Amino acid sequence: EAGVTQSPTHLIKTRGQQATLRCSPISGHTSVYWYQQALGLGLQFLLWYDEGEERNRGNFPPRFSGRQFPNYSSELNVNALELEDSALYLCASSRGPQPETQYFGPGTRLLVL
Amino acid sequence: AQSVTQLDSHVSVSEGTPVLLRCNYSSSYSPSLFWYVQHPNKGLQLLLKYTSAATLVKGINGFEAEFKKSETSFHLTKPSAHMSDAAEYFCVVSDIPGDMRFGAGTRLTVKP
């Protein structure tokens, strides 16, 4: 069974640009979660999608947004990039909402210059 | 509100000695609790989870954790450390669907 996949593995942008990160969940999983892992700030919950709907979002500004497609894959968009957005962005999937186990992808490392 | 505190930011042990990574949680409900491990430049891998069944939970690679409600703790242990156990470990609490709160992480170093 293929795991969670994310693309690209690395992304370099300049301040003010937009970044798009992609995630494909494990087959059969309907929930997708996005997390930001910034240096010194730990793992912060960003967004949760289930069955195509945004179910919850963490304490991040509206320029962080995303969507889930009918095939349950997901996209995270970050507009008006700031230097502090540089981080590892992790995607996870589960069969449904908690307490279902979340399985994580390898992440996309975003660098904002 | 749910939260989790990992009591040690860094733990160092010798190969073959026991490992103890401490985690305390706060939750208004009956939480689900998890331990994840992250090796350098890798995603997170689930070690084990507690969801109100047996209080002693066995995970992969010889790790186990005990849920103690009276102490609000969920410490991770392993009888004998291996060099490959060196990684960052995260304790996670969840009592609301879709909302997982991660601890700050504990970096485990294993000395030869």
Topology:
The complex is a heterodimer of chains A (113) and B (112).
Chain A: E1 5-7, E2 10-13, E3 19-24, E4 31-38, E5 42-50, E6 53-57, E7 64-68, E8 74-78, E9 87-94, E10 103-104, E11 108-112
Parallel strand pairs in A: 2-11
Antiparallel strand pairs in A: 1-3, 3-8, 4-5, 4-9, 5-6, 7-8, 9-10, 9-11
Chain B: E1 3-6, E2 10-14, E3 19-21, E4 23-26, E5 32-38, E6 44-50, E7 56-58, E8 64-68, E9 73-78, E10 87-96, E11 99-102, E12 106-111
Parallel strand pairs in B: 2-12
Antiparallel strand pairs in B: 1-4, 3-9, 5-6, 5-10, 7-8, 8-9, 10-11, 10-12
What descriptors fit this protein?
heterodimer, A: 113 residues, mainly beta, seven-stranded mixed β-sheet, four-stranded antiparallel β-sheet, globular, B: 112 residues, six-stranded mixed β-sheet, 0% helix
Descriptive report:
The complex is a heterodimer of chains A (113) and B (112). Chain A has strands spanning 5-7, 10-13, 19-24, 31-38, 42-50, 53-57, 64-68, 74-78, 87-94, 103-104, 108-112. Chain A is mostly beta strands and 113 residues long. In chain A, strands 2, 4, 5, 6, 9, 10 and 11 form a 7-stranded mixed sheet that branches. A 4-stranded antiparallel sheet of chain A has the order 1-3-8-7, with no helix packed on it. Chain B is mainly beta. Chain B has no helices and 12 strands. Chain B has strands at residues 3-6, 10-14, 19-21, 23-26, 32-38, 44-50, 56-58, 64-68, 73-78, 87-96, 99-102, 106-111. In chain B, the strands form 3 sheets. In chain B, strands 2, 5, 6, 10, 11 and 12 form a 6-stranded mixed sheet that branches. In chain B, strands 3-9-8-7 form a 4-stranded antiparallel sheet, with no helix packed on it. Chain B has a two-stranded antiparallel sheet with strand order 1-4. In chain B, strand 5 and strand 6 form a beta hairpin. The N and C termini of chain B lie far apart (41 Å). The A-B interface holds A 4, 31, 33, 35, 42-45, 48, 50, 55-56, 90, 92, 97-99, 101-107 and B 32, 34, 36, 42-46, 49, 51, 90, 94, 96-105.
